[in-house]
Specification:
This protein is an all-alpha fold. The chain has a domain of about 160 residues. The chain is about 85% helix and about 0% strand. It is built from 15 helices and no strands. It is elongated, with a radius of gyration of 26 Å.
């Protein structure tokens, strides 16, 4: 008994050291790992739809992959086009609001004793400040680098997803060749659970973001804020970025309300209270509880994972935090030494304990994982 306890203690010590070393490694290798992890997560989310096309409609596997990827790209293009056109519409109204810009800037300039010339336009007044010039140049340079980095990684992620999904129909054969007995059944069980939970997380995030966008649209419409649909759409898109996305959406909408309603402060205050209320309710109350209950994670662990992954990988880490923690919990549920960790990560003890039992090959449904035979039959 003492030897077993000593072995468990040594295991947990080595596990703690491995976590520290692993965290350092994944932080150093972030430029390489982030696109790979994103592509794996998105591929797992898309996989159930490809399975349905392949199994139920008997569509060839590669054609299923191509159709789903094409539809996804079309949807991304449509969303991006709508967002860009909406922002252009808002910016096109700048001449209408330029006078209010000047009034607000005049108040701020007199308050903080900033040079202000009423005969010049707002742009000329701002450009005359040396600090503003430097800041704008720095923002423009950083933004251009970010855009290049984003599109480079976006193209890389698309190709990674495409090739990964194309090879998924051979996954069962690889598992059969690599593992035997209960280990094989357990690996398949882990893989199926990961697909289920990642898909569930993305669907929950979509629903919460949609609820946020609808609430912002209706609220700003009642306040009579112009372009209420645009602010709702921005709230919907930005809500996919944890914490900072909601904050950015609030700042943009409140800034526009100042331009439209100043010097009347009542609608501005109402807009701020509305946005803060919606984002606090959705982001800090409803979403953690829904995600915690549906994914079996403690809401406290959800918040801790956001902080930890945000520190390791920044914005990308916060987006990947919850699905990465879910995957970690699923792996811990299927390794006996890590069962205590799975219970600590979970929300409900009894529900988590049900998932700790070992899985045998007999309990697995072979149709859950697409095989080479099923793909070949569909090709016929």
């Amino acid at each position: 008994m003492q030897q077993k306890s000593y072995g468990q203690g040594l295991f947990y010590l080595l596990l703690f050291i491995s976590i520290i070393i692993g965290g350092a490694i994944i932080r150093i290798t972030a430029p390489v790992m982030i696109p790979v992890v994103f592509s794996i997560m998105l591929a797992l989310a898309i996989l159930p739809l490809i399975r349905k096309l392949n199994h139920k409609l008997h569509m060839p596997w590669n054609w299923s992959v191509f159709i789903v990827m094409a539809l996804s790209l079309v949807l991304i293009f449509m969303v991006g086009t709508f967002l860009v056109s909406s922002l252009k519409t808002v910016l096109s109204c700048y001449p209408i609001f330029e006078q209010r810009f000047m009034i607000i800037y005049g108040v701020v300039a007199r308050k903080f004793k900033i040079p202000f010339n009423e005969t010049l336009s707002l742009i000329d007044n701002l450009w005359s400040l040396l600090s503003v010039r430097t800041t704008i140049k720095h923002i423009a340079f950083s933004f251009s680098l970010y855009v290049i980095y984003f599109f480079k990684n976006f193209i890389l992620i698309i190709f990674l997803i495409l090739f990964l999904l194309a090879e998924m129909h051979r996954f069962r054969d690889k598992i059969d060749a690599a593992f035997n007995g209960k280990v094989k059944g357990r690996v398949i069980h882990v893989f199926n659970n990961i697909i289920l939970e990642v898909t569930r997380f993305i669907s929950i995030k979509f629903i919460v973001s949609l609820m946020t966008g609808i609430a912002i649209t209706l609220g700003t419409y009642l306040i009579r804020l112009d372009f209420s649909v645009v602010w709702g759409f921005i709230g919907f898109i930005f809500n996919f970025i944890p914490i900072f996305g909601a904050a950015s959406s609030c700042i943009l909408t409140i800034a526009f309300s100042i331009l439209q309603f100043y010097p009347d402060t009542t609608p501005i205050i109402l807009t701020g209270v509305l946005l803060l209320g919606i984002n606090i309710l959705m982001g800090n109350v409803i979403e953690p509880r829904i995600i915690g209950r549906n994914l079996g994670l403690s809401p406290f662990i959800v918040l801790v994972s956001l902080s930890a992954w945000g520190w390791i990988w920044g914005f990308a880490g916060m987006i990947l935090a919850v699905p990465a923690t879910v995957i970690l919990k699923i792996i811990c549920e299927n390794i006996s030494y890590l069962h205590p960790v799975a219970i600590l990560l979970g929300d409900r003890i009894q529900q988590t304990e049900k998932e700790l039992s070992p899985v045998s090959d007999d309990s697995m449904d072979e149709t859950d994982i697409p095989t080479v035979e099923s793909a070949d039959n569909s090709n016929k």
